Amino acid sequence: MDNYFELLRRHGLILWVSFFVGSLAAGVITGIAAVIIIFLGAIILFVSAKDVLNELGASLDSLPPDPAAILEKLFSPGIVIPLLITIVLFIGIMLLYSGFTNAGMNTMMRNAVFEGRSSIETYFTQGFRYMLKMAGQLLLTGLFYLPAIILLAAGVFLFAYGIAEGGAPSVLLGLLLALLSVALFIVLALVFLHAPVILVTENTGIWESIALSARLFARSFGQVFLSGLIVFLIYFAYGVLFFILGAIIGISTFDPSGTDPTETSLGLELFFNLLQYVLNPLMQVLSLLVVFLRYRNRLRPRLFPEESDNGGEIGGTKTIWK
To answer: For the chain, where are the alpha helices, taking DSSP H only?
Structure first.
């Protein structure tokens, strides 16, 4: 079986181009859809709440403004309902975008790792095939992150309150909650790390893929942790490289005597944004290949030992890239 670098050599370029083109096309369509949703939401809001908005303007113009009257107008059904509909539609569009791109990337990587083939057509055909299931999985796993988000928000609030009021207990409690939330984020990321992989590789349902990923976390914590660590190191190295490149270019192009230094900074910012947009798909290829390859050779045999023909070690290698 091909190892990491052999697969990268054979399929890396087509995967990189596919990830870039697919995300670009999906991003353009999603952007257009988002603008349409916001535009229609604004029209509906104006039509349904025209009188309420006029009354709200009058309340703001009064001296002194009446906070109770302003809040009453802001939370009236004519304003709240259109806003909720717009927000729900916007979240739905973003879920479909994420579902399509994640489905396209994961199915392409599945074909490269398990079948030794890659085609840009796969990104779009399989992306649409698994889009709804992947969007549903993202929604479900996102709900599991709510306790961590609440803990983080509470920690930040307590920390800021303690700093403002000079209360050491509030600062310490805020830091503790923030650390607990970070730990919970890490644990959940590892629990759900292989859920998209399992969904497209085993063609399972949404909840079953999440449950099997959690089972892998419980049965093979060391191997799951190692996969997550390698992915983290890939992105960490990418971030460090980007930082060093930015520092070198920034220092070499800095000219304090220039007539308008903001032009240089804007040009550099645009350059780095474009570079990041091009390199992000490459990072996705490098990290996703690790996850799929280690799933194929290390973790899948532990989920389905009856399908392993050599004692659970497909490929028979001990290197972490296999």
So the answer is: 4-48, 50-61, 67-74, 77-110, 120-144, 146-165, 168-191, 195-201, 206-219, 221-253, 261-294, 300-303
| CB-based contact 100:6 (threshold 8 Å) | no
Question: What pLDDT is attached to residue 60?
Answer: 58
pLDDT of res. 72: 65
First-to-final CA distance of the chain: 9
Tokens (6 digits) for 118: 């890659």
- Token digits for 310? 């050599």
For the stretch 215-250, what's the b/e string if a residue is b when 16 or more beta carbons lie within 10 angstroms of its beta carbon?
Answer: ebbeebeebbeebbebbeebeeebeeeeeeeeeeee
How many CA atoms lie within 13 Å of 49's alpha carbon, on the beta-carbon side?
Answer: 22
> Running DSSP on this structure, what letter comes out for residue 63?
S
Locate 234 and state its tokens.
């890939």
The amino acid at residue 203 is N
pLDDT for 170: 81
pTM above 0.85, yes or no: no
- For residue 26, CA distances in Å to 23, 111, 167, 170, 274 come to 5, 21, 48, 45, 17
Q: 134: Cβ–Cβ under 8 A, 6 or more apart, which residues?
A: 98, 99, 100, 102, 103, 106, 196, 199, 200
pLDDT of residue 264: 56
Q: What angle do CA 81, 83, 85 make, to 5 degrees?
A: 70
List, for the chain, all residue ranges whose pLDDT scores fall below the cut of 50: 310-322
Q: What is the pLDDT of residue 101?
A: 96
